[in-house]
């Protein structure tokens, strides 16, 4: 499912394949809750409130808590110590290196560079992704014309024009946030990505060109809201 015309580090296959399959139990209530969470982030940059979720899921407080816990166990969402939603891949409630200005929507944080590229595909709308090269701090921007999506790609304008995505994974086990979210980043160019990798030898990585990165974002998130 995560095939993008490149060879990803093995831990990333599991992470992106789980996201692409949505990783949720195949029940109407879990699907409804998951999609309500994603749509809330897209429209307001925050997860739904308990009352908003109740309107969608139609369950009592104990049942809603159980649904959220099950989504978290399947690495679809992440909860804080109070049981509140703190992330729902590809979105984060906390600041990250990647912001996505959704056309006609909100400006949420994305968990990683591939997640950011997948958001406009998931919503089938244009967006501007703003990030920074973690090595130099140089701005990286992608103007995603996802309304013109054709199959597994969409037109995009990258600045700088030689920007790439480094898809890396740390040698740990656990949720995606621990394995790779901080090591899947935009870089201003391939040379900078390779230099960063040399300074972080514990990270297993692949450098994705622009087309590969867009395709991976689409394959991972493009159908989570049922968009063909």
Explain how this protein is built.
This protein has 228 residues and is an alpha+beta fold. It has a domain at 22-81. The chain has helices at 10-20, 28-44, 50-57, 61-73, 113-123, 176-179, 190-199, 210-221, and strands spanning 77-79, 85-88, 91-92, 98-102, 109-110, 127-132, 139-144, 156-159, 164-169, 184-187, 204-208. Strands 1-2-3-5-4-6-7-8 form an 8-stranded antiparallel sheet. A 3-stranded antiparallel sheet has the order 10-9-11. β4 (98-102) and β5 (109-110) form a beta hairpin. The protein is globular and about 55 Å long. It starts with 9 loop residues before the first helix and ends in a 7-residue tail after the last helix. Keywords: Lyase. This is Alkylmercury lyase family protein. GO terms for molecular function: lyase activity. InterPro entries: MerB, MerB_lyase_sf.
The percent range for strand residues is: 15-25%
Helix/strand structural class: alpha+beta
* Structural shape: globular
H and E string: HHHHEEEEEHEEEEHEHEH
Averaging pLDDT over every residue, what do you get? 88
Radius of gyration: 17 Å
* Main sheet characteristics: 8 strands, antiparallel
**Number of helices in the DSSP assignment:** 8
Percent helix range: 25-40%
Low-confidence stretches: none
Tell me how many strands there are: 11
The span between the termini is: 15 Å
Strand neighbour order, sheet with most strands: 1-2-3-5-4-6-7-8
In terms of quaternary structure, the protein is single chain
